[in-house]
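Protein in question filed below.

…
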Amino acid sequence: MNREEFISLCDKKEKLIRTEAELSQDKMAYALGISKKTLVEIEKGRRTLGWTGSIALCSIFSESEVLQATFGGYPDEVIKSLAFEQKEVVYHQTMGGNIWWRDLDTDNGYKIQQNIISNHYRILDDKDRRICSSFDYEEMKMRLKGMQKERDENHEK
């Protein structure tokens, strides 16, 4: 997934999210910081929320079942993966992937998981805290190998 695909999904799901939240177009437009006219255009497929509007939608409505089903859990991890490509982000402890994730690789407590909906990857430590996430599986495998090497070097000292 890239930013354009993320924005497209948000555009397509906005009306469902608004309906789920039982909001009028006026109230949804106000919540997103856009005009009602712009919201109507988005719902008709003539305009887009854009990156900032999509983030606002996901942040404000992060508890939405529609959003969680679309992104395989809370959308913040997808947003961070797209916003901070190739950079370290501090993540909080997870539930270990009981619902939206499948384990791909494990090593000494670290594991690479893939989200079954959005298909992005993450590495969790032995306490189920996210180390990093990305849409690039090869990058995740290299990161895991790097953590293994670092751990082995620390044990030799």
Remarks:
- The mean pLDDT is 86.
- The longest strand covers residues 101-107.
- The radius of gyration is 18 Å.
- The chain has seven helices and four strands.
